[in-house]
Amino acid sequence: MVETQNFPYQFDHEEKIYQQLRTLQGCVIPVFYGEGRMCGDGKRTIVLPDVGGANPYSEQFGRVTETAIKEKLQPAIGAILELGVEPGDHNPRNYHIAGDDAAFVVDFEDTADVDPERVEELTDAVGDGVAYLGRILSQMQRR
């Protein structure tokens, strides 16, 4: 993420969330390396590694089954929810399947606090939504 003039608070918020989720870094979210500055305009940027793998917009994502998507992403999302953070931007490019066991969630500029009693319900709902998206994209790629 690069800081924008209109929404500097989103940058600060995302940085705070990466710190809140630090126990998940490298497991289900990227490692947060810190803050950097862009050449030229000097805007702040969050420094993260490339987690690799495929997001639903990539060609190789179509080879991943709906069941595999749900099995891999649901635990990742559940772990984030258990730490009190609900990802708010469910754009498909914010979910990555990397290898046989790894799933990553990225982009935390738009989040909500989670009621601990709703963690299981929210995990199921988000996992179902991501799996459904995977099925639709798979069907589109077969045409």
Provide a descriptive summary of the structure in words.
The longest helix is centred in the last third of the chain and has 24 residues, at 119-142. The strands form 3 sheets. This protein has a two-stranded antiparallel sheet. It has a two-stranded antiparallel sheet with strand order 3-6. The protein starts with 7 loop residues before the first helix and ends with a helix. It has helices spanning 8-20, 66-82, 119-142; strands at residues 34-37, 44-47, 85-87, 95-98, 102-105, 111-113. It is of the alpha+beta class and 143 residues long. 38% of the residues lie in helices and 15% in strands. The protein has a single domain (8-142), classed as Orthogonal Bundle (Transferase(Phosphotransferase), domain 1).
Topology:
Layout: H1 8-20, E1 34-37, E2 44-47, H2 66-82, E3 85-87, E4 95-98, E5 102-105, E6 111-113, H3 119-142
Antiparallel strand pairs: 1-2, 3-6, 4-5
Helix pairs in contact: 2-3
